[in-house]
Amino acid sequence: MRVSVSEAKGQLTELVKRAEAGDEVILTRRGHEIVRLVAVAVSPGLKGRRALMEKARASAVAKALQGPAAARSQDFLYDDDGMPA
């Protein structure tokens, strides 16, 4: 829904209710879009945040690749005496 700023002044309460209900409300000035009214997303509680972190952790574990240990990853740069190769 597109509404000019001058029209929105008189119907702000109704526009806010529509945005809360999920409608896209765009305010325009001289035909150009300038503002979009959207409802504020409710932040998840402690259980929701914990579930999100567990989901991210499980995703990371599934994507992890086996490779050389970080302590030995640069050994090819040095010879047996520890000098640069």
From TrEMBL:
Protein name per the record:
Antitoxin
Pfam families in UniProt: PhdYeFM_antitox
Question: In UniProt terms, what function does this protein have?
Answer: Antitoxin component of a type II toxin-antitoxin (TA) system.
Regarding protein family, the annotation reads: Belongs to the phD/YefM antitoxin family.
